Fold this sequence. Notes:
binds NADP nicotinamide-adenine-dinucleotide phosphate; 7-stranded mixed sheet; disordered N terminus
Amino acid sequence: MTQTETERNTGAVAAVPTLQSSVGGRWRGSGRLTADINPANPAETVAEVDVADAGIAAEAVLAAGAAFRDWSARPAPARGEGLRRAADILSARADGIARDFSREEGKPLAESTGEVGRAVAVLRYFAGQTLEPDGETYPSQSPTTFLFARREPVGVVSIITPWNFPIAIPTWKIAPALAYGNTVAWKPAEIVPHTAVHLATALMEAGLPDGVLNLVLGRGSEVGDVLVGHPEVRAVSFTGSNAVGRAIQAGAAARGTKVQLELGGKNPALVMRDADLAHAAEQVARGAFLSTGQKCTATSRVMVEAPVFDEFRERLVAIAESWKVGDPLDPSTKLGPLASESQFETVTGYLEAGARDGARAVAGGGAARDEGGGFFVQPTVFTGAAPDSRIATEEIFGPVVTLLPVSGYEEGVRMANDTVYGLTASIFTSDLGQAMRFLHDSHAGVVKINQETAGVELQAPFGGVKESSSGSREQGKTAREFFTEWKTVYIEHVPPSGA
Ligand code: NAP
Ligand code: MG
């Protein structure tokens, strides 16, 4: 990592830094360089990446293994102090980090700045959790037995994260892993190495002992098998696509490794005739288009009660057409580019599939590439799609929403649940009874009433049902489930002499 002291302290970076992995507290690379590019201007190289190979990944796991005994023996509140210092460092560098994040991932600066702030808050939250009770006592059958159970760290944890929340998702996995005494080998997505180096640097500068957190800047296809299959790895926490997640789960099952998966979504919103339509349209637009639709929790299908369909569509189209697509660093931009060329191919492929299947784009419908060739697409609203067509059933991961008319609540909820996914779901209604019914009927891990499907708070459990998740929930106090195991302890004490 070739950054000067001043650059590190300000969060600013040299014109084109070279980024490396960190293993056992040392920067490491294989000498194979690739370019980290700006999706708003693909000719611009944001950083050079010295890509890790499987050998470096194995060293990262071994370094984590070597650091585990001392780290897990350290009092939890002392581990929490380290997280608190990392939060302070990250907070002091937030502006520079958010810029680098926007330049490599494409998220508008307001969103990337908000996400860095979320990472700071998550670190502080889990620092606080290190002061919480770590077990419970049980009344024993015997008068001379003291019986208790406490949570203990699992060991070496591999953490594999996607590019769409390049600092929030890694932090909400790494912070609890470390707080509860585990050591970590972390592989961020290939296209967001700069944000990853910023987070890892803040944690290491906060005083983590060497090897407690190891960063592997390698390709999933090259280092994934080692990170999941190495015999020292006790648990794997993964967020990303269903295909990769299921393969990881199969490999881990064969070895009895603990696994937590957060995968895709095809999140529905129901707009009922008694909803506040202005509010519903604003919330659906946020859920569908912010982060250029690249959220697992994005709103992708909207079931609208027939009598208000036209009015809702017009309101949503007006918002879509008013939101500016452009340079993520320009403060007036609402939608940046898609994060990569392959995302661009995927999303424009869905726009074409929608048109081919007979749907009509009433807003957007195509690419919005400028002379710089950035991976821009227009926020798109489809109507007239068959409920079983590709755009209405498959995760798109772009700023594309499909409106489907329904005759009433029953048809709406049936359609909402008619998906292999079950991450988030919303209903817009002013009828409390109907809202409560939806709460009960919805097959989703997160249900929102009169709120967009995206957007979650860090102190509450997060995760889905059906194909969207596996293993215990992330975030909040529930994060402890995954990153610790019970140890049950029987202490036999001799009765006082003379008793
Ligand atoms: P992805 O291709 O599955 O990548 C996710 C991570 O897995 C990346 O770090 C990737 O590395 C790595 N990976 C790829 N192949 C691997 C392998 N064989 N073994 C181990 N790791 C491997 O997903 P993505 O395209 O980056 O992200 C989009 C997906 O993530 C969407 O489906 C979205 O719904 C889901 N997502 C879910 C949540 C949630 O909380 N439920 C949140 C955000 C995103 P490389 O980058 O090097 O390929
Ligand atoms: Mg990928």
